[in-house]
Design a protein that fits this description.
10-stranded mixed sheet, 435 residues, 2 domains, alpha+beta, elongated, ABC transporter permease, transmembrane helix, 17% strand, 14 helices
């Protein structure tokens, strides 16, 4: 029973140590690295550990098979973990770029997304006259009453139907969203069944080439332009809201987006909406709105990434343990000889740990390199808050690569600890006799 509880406490202590290491900020890691370097350079035990480490590293080519198990196992953990986190990072970055603090979106009170919101046509002129909304060069309010229709289009990959957001916008939408730029063709004409498509949607779905016609709501629509925006709008199709609404028998709009007038624009608009009993609407900056849309899925992706990474890390730890135990057993005479000529337990422990950490670092760099080369910029799509596909790119940032390297070193730390302690406790006489 004592052994069981002792082992359980050891495992818990290692888990806490590993979690603390992974959460350690960069300056904390740097401080640890500097402390170890100074110990290796300035103390007698450190110099002995350094020499013992050189002996162990020199023998790595003779143990390349076992060393490769550690490197490849840890590389796999880092590559998968980094890829999963890069997916969540890319999705969040795409939606974060969609909004800003200079524009606001209005929905029916209590609505969480455009799909369950209604703004009646008689409310639109009332909203447009509210204080806090900026005016364009023509003196008209920069506000766009919009609706969103989910349509099915065949995917480029396998032809299966996927949900795509077909957005109806007002004339002010272009001036309010200066990041939306036509790169092919032209804008749709007012009152015409014409569509402009986002570059992301064009790359992921069939039939969206310039000049093509689509049959939607039993009517023919012509693709007259392609736009780029660098945000989630690039996954959408745009048309005139006054044409899209009647085509789908929509008597009302779903949202209204407005450009804010200066720093106090949002406060003025929110206060005006609250004071008018005819307008039971919620208002948020577009940054907050799209940030909330990405929050749930980003958390889910990140949680899955950590869980999958942790499961793989456990396997990598056992691989490192087996390999290092085998390495210690194979070097029994060498370790016993070092112990006999004056190498104490601490230098031997440090030497085995540093050897394992070096292999872990190589695995981490390999996994990070694979994740960067294969996944950075890789384009995928997933369902967004409105149940339509959002096209985004994996984003392998330096912060994610750093996180992957910390995971690699943490695996090396745990995987090398017990073999290192065994090497330090190896009886000299038994090791020499067995050898």
């Amino acid at each position: 029973m004592k052994r069981f509880f002792s082992g359980l406490l050891t495992v818990l202590a290692l888990a806490v140590l590993l979690a603390a290491w992974i959460m350690l900020p960069w300056f904390g890691v740097l401080a640890v690295a500097i402390a170890i370097a100074l110990w290796l350079l300035l103390t007698r035990s450190g110099r002995l550990a350094r020499e013992a480490t050189k002996i162990g590293i020199a023998g790595l080519p003779q143990r390349w098979g076992a060393s490769l198990v550690i490197v490849v196992g840890i590389a796999g953990v880092v590559a998968v973990l980094t890829a999963m986190l890069a997916m969540g990072n890319g999705f969040k970055a795409t939606l974060d770029k969609t909004g800003d603090d200079r524009s606001a979106i209005m929905l029916r009170a209590g609505s969480q997304a455009e799909t369950n919101s209604v703004i009646t046509r008689d409310q639109v002129p009332l909203i447009s006259t509210l204080p806090g909304i900026a005016k364009g060069v023509d003196g008209k309010p920069l506000a766009s009453a919009e609706l969103s229709q989910i349509i099915n289009l065949p995917s480029m990959a396998d032809g299966t139907d996927a949900n795509v957001q077909f957005r109806g916008v007002g004339p002010a939408a272009w001036e309010m969203r200066p990041q939306v730029k036509i790169v092919q063709g032209r804008k749709f004409g007012g009152g015409l069944r014409e569509i402009v498509v986002g570059r992301g949607a064009q790359q992921r779905f069939r039939g969206l080439e310039l000049g093509k016609q689509l049959k939607l709501a039993n009517q023919m629509w012509t693709v007259v332009g392609v736009f780029e925006s660098g945000d989630s709008h690039e996954s959408e199709l745009w048309a005139d809201a006054d044409v899209l609404g009647p085509a789908y028998q929509r008597q009302a709009f779903q949202s209204m987006t407005a450009k804010l007038d200066g720093k106090d624009g949002f406060k003025q608009l929110k206060a005006a909406l609250a004071a008018d009993p005819r307008l039971k609407l919620d208002v948020e900056t577009t940054r907050n709105y799209y940030g909330k849309q990405s929050e749930g899925l980003t958390k889910l992706i990140n949680a899955l990434g950590v869980v999958i990474g942790a499961i793989m890390a456990i396997g990598a730890v056992f691989g490192a343990l087996n390999s290092m135990y085998a390495a210690v057993a194979g070097r029994a005479r060498e370790i016993a000889t070092m112990r006999a000529i004056g190498f104490r337990g601490l230098p031997v422990v440090t030497a085995v740990m540093l050897e394992t950490m070096l292999l872990a670092l190589l695995g981490g760099l390999l996994g990070a390199g694979i994740a960067w080369l294969v996944f950075n910029g890789y384009t995928v799509s997933t369902l967004g808050q409105n149940f339509s596909q959002v096209v985004f790119q994996f984003r392998v940032s330096p912060e994610l690569l750093w996180t992957g390297l910390k995971w690699a070193l943490g695996i090396g730390l745990v995987g090398g600890l017990f073999p290192a302690l065994r090497a330090a406790r190896l009886p000299v006489t038994e090791a020499l006799r067995a050898a």
